[in-house]
């Protein structure tokens, strides 16, 4: 099955919908015991970028958005297993 431009757009839109609010992002990270620096290292950005995302000053974009959403999903899933 070939991927079309429309499929790529739908996938990008889904990633944006899956991005939690800034407060939820912070809560997920804290619940997992990760520091901002550790989350930043996992995503491939600076600690300041994560701080900006968690405070709502900025929103991740591009590949960083995809990586951040993946990291938050992993954190959520791991936290749910422990609970």
Provide structural commentary.
This protein is an all-alpha fold. It contains five helices and no strands. It has helices spanning 5-18, 22-32, 36-43, 47-55, 62-82. The radius of gyration is 14 Å and the shape is globular. It starts with a helix and ends with a helix. The mean pLDDT is 91.
Summarize the structure.
With 83 residues, this protein is mainly α.
What is the fold's blueprint, element by element?
Layout: H1 5-18, H2 22-32, H3 36-43, H4 47-55, H5 62-82
Helix pairs in contact: 2-5, 3-4
Key words describing this protein structure:
single chain; 83 residues; mainly alpha
Helix-strand pattern, N to C? HHHHH
- Mean pLDDT score: 91
Q: Distance between termini?
A: 39 Å
Helix content: over 70%
Structural class: mainly alpha
Give the CA-based shape.
globular
Low-confidence stretches: none
* Count of DSSP strands: 0
Describe the main β-sheet briefly.
none
Please give the count of helices.
5
Rounded to the nearest angstrom, the radius of gyration is: 14 Å
Strand content: under 5%
């Amino acid at each position: 099955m070939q991927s079309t431009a429309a499929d790529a757009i739908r996938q990008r839109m889904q990633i944006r919908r899956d991005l939690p609010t800034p407060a939820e992002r912070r809560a997920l990270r804290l619940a997992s015991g990760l520091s901002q620096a550790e989350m930043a290292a996992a995503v491939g950005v600076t600690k300041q970028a994560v701080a900006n995302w968690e405070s709502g000053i900025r929103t991740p974009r591009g590949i960083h958005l995809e990586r951040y959403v993946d990291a938050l999903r992993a954190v959520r899933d791991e936290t749910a297993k422990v609970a």
